[in-house]
Write a structure and sequence with these properties.
The chain is an alpha/beta fold. The chain contains 12 helices and 8 strands. The protein has an 8-stranded mixed beta sheet with strand order 3-4-2-5-1-6-7-8, with helices on both faces. The chain is globular and about 65 Å long.
Length: 267
């Protein structure tokens, strides 16, 4: 099952991607978590050991490797191989975290542009396609706020797109755009997740707003100050307080996704 988590920066994408990765791993699944956000904070939510974390170099910053993979001998400047060899990269550069899960940090492109054929983008796009289409494990991707770099072939590898919103118009506006683009790229299973919900009135407003989206409000997660406390101390929320309201809600989301996996693939 390949799960992508997208949304506006700061809405809780990393919290959701990281906690779901841990819960799938605890349940016995082989899990590879992918950090494709330029903030690169997924390692904190996963609870990766500080010593391991300090040695992680994002794929997008491996200049020598990128040059070797994308250079076309004899070609002039500005000409790159846009389909470089990447199949060995995940197993070569992934690191192991709690509960046996593994993490691969892709990083983001500093100045993303639709259609950019720079070497870094060629590597990331090809690698995402390899991860989502060709690998046989639970893949959970913490995407950047925008999905401009997501190609049609790669998008078809996504089994479930979780679009995360917080109770704000700006967040919902971006979610609408992400959902529209995901549909155009051929993603079939798209679900809206509402995070940082304070009361039912916020859910009512969100439900009213999304009436014409043809996308269900799949799950809501309550605002929980414990999440901020865990973040301040650099501890995975799942380790900091496994009985906090937000973590309990994320455990329920995991159960729903596990059931969805049965419905999509195992029945």
């Amino acid at each position: 099952m390949k799960i992508a988590v997208a949304g506006k920066g700061g809405v809780g994408k990393t919290l959701i991607a990281g906690t779901l990765s841990r819960l799938f791993a605890r349940d016995g699944f082989k899990v590879l978590a992918i950090d494709n956000d330029s903030a690169m904070n997924l390692s904190y939510t996963l609870g990766i050991d500080n010593e391991v974390k300090s040695k992680i170099v994002p794929i997008s910053e491996m200049k020598k490797m990128i040059e070797e993979r994308t250079t076309i001998k004899g070609a002039g400047p500005g000409v790159y191989n846009i389909n470089p060899r990447v199949s060995d990269i995940p197993d070569k550069y992934k690191v192991t975290g709690p509960d046996g899960l593994q993490l691969l940090v892709l990083g983001g492109i500093e100045e993303p542009a639709t259609g950019c054929l720079c070497p870094e983008n060629a590597i990331i796009r090809t690698l995402l396609h390899n991860l989502l289409v060709k690998r046989d494990e639970v893949i959970i991707v913490d995407f950047e706020a925008g999905l401009e770099h997501l190609g049609r072939g790669t998008a078809k590898g996504i089994d479930v797109m979780l679009v995360v919103a917080e109770p704000s118009q700006k967040s919902l506006d971006l979610c609408s755009k992400i959902i529209d683009l995901s549909k155009k790229l051929g993603v079939i299973n798209i679900y809206l997740i509402a995070n940082k919900i304070i009361d039912d009135s916020q859910l009512s407003i969100i439900n009213e707003r999304i009436k014409e989206w043809d996308i269900p409000l799949y799950h809501s997660i309550p605002y929980d100050s414990v999440i901020g406390k865990a973040d301040l101390q650099g501890i995975s929320p799942l380790d900091f307080d496994p009985e906090s309201e937000a973590v309990k809600s994320l455990k329920l989301l995991f159960s729903k996704l596990k059931q969805l996996k049965l419905e999509l693939f195992d029945l």
